[in-house]
Fold:
Amino acid sequence: MTRPRERTASVVVPPLVTFVLGVTLWEGAVRALAVPAFLIPPPSAVLAAAWHDRALLAGSLLTTAEGAGSGFLLSVVIGTLVAVLFSLSRWLERGLYPYALFLQTVPIVAVAPLLVLWFGPGLRAVSVSAFIVSVFPIIANTLAGLRSTDPRLLDLFRLYGAKLGDTVLKLRFPSAIPSMVTGFKVASGLSVIGAIVGEFVAGFSEGSAGLGITVLSAYRQLRTDLLFAAVLLAALLGLSLFALVSALGALLLRRLRAEW
Amino acid sequence: MLEEFPISSRVSIRQVNHSFSPGGAVLRDIDLELPAGEFVALVGPSGCGKSTLLRLISGLEQPSAGSIQLASNVAGASAAPSKLTFVFQDAQLLPWRSVLDNVALPLEIQGLSREQARERAKAPLADVELTDAAERYPDQLSGGMRMRVSIARALVTEPELLLLDEPFAALDELTRQRLDERLRALWIARRMTVVFVTHSLAEAVFLADRALVMSSRPGRIVLDQQLNLPENRLGAMRTEAPFVAQTALLYQALAAHGGFDEGGTGGSR
Structure:
């Protein structure tokens, strides 16, 4: 049996080794082959750029986090409501599900200009872009969860003459939580992607520019080191949001004593 | 009677035939009268339709033909659906509710506040000797304890009719025997009508006052046997001659009507 500390080490050490090896290899190769810094900057240059432009990057990070976070929360609220409505009525589901699927399949890059027309440049268009990309996994997973309630427990509720509200709140909803958490996790990562795409088209506003804008302007100035830093920050933002949602989900599942 | 007249349901099953699809008959010509307050065991081979019959009695499904009527033995007390309850093979508890909250659930559904429901759930929990486990959660209980919680939940609404679908089948033999003894004692104290589905002949004889043996599908009642055994039943009874004789009688009926054909259908392999 492995002790907890050993297990943690066995989880943390391998990716850390890969990271150190990868960065060293990258730095060494770029220097040895004399690759121009505007094509591939060495990690040291990326780090230096990140430090030099830390104020700009911090502002961008917060702006993007705001867009992604608000879009994600919108998805959680609307996606859950839509799934509950679908679960209550087969007709509603059949009538509307294809159009919910449309949100999943429509290329967000192509729709983004429309969002700017409708919602104006800035946070609102970015939020809606994050929402469009992240809402479908929440609808689909929540609906699957609501539908997977044990039929015998549903029988039992029926025998006791349960009202619809009781069946949803006391049985269907708690049973659906594990699936819902899965949907939220997928959606959290997607919302950052949606926000960045939204910013590419709609990001110029009064406040500070988001990471998507920083990526674009760094590209136009051929500041590849800054571009790398912004891209890495965007990835880190997605990971952090995912980790946060996973942790909250795990807490909730433990309280519900769900099997997962 | 030492207490008030116990309320229970009479079940009248008239010419019930049932099939899930045309030509796929599950139950054939079921005609039964279950008097109020009787403890009936329903035995038969797997797939003979005994669980289906239980679902039909509960009203969760309607028979393809024939009728099933429940009537309370007390005038004025309607045989409302809330007056019957169902116990499944696995305990079917809500994992996110404590033991006491699981037992209180039916009362909450029927409109009591959480506090009132919890208060009233304490007595049936004590009846199954789980008062000390009230604040534990289902995943902290053994299979036998979970089943006892399930029975307490069924008793909390003081049902007139208790339907049990192989409730102890997944438990080990000793646990099952202890639960059988407890269920019999609870019935003696309350006298609700009980229909207990099992595939164990010994369990049927130990628990019930009347045993119904069903044939393999389409299920018919092939034996309707009053079990003349003492009212209070102790574990030792299982080795005594009358018990063994009754069990043998059910065995013969079951064997004669396709109950033991699992080994005999080897040709189809």
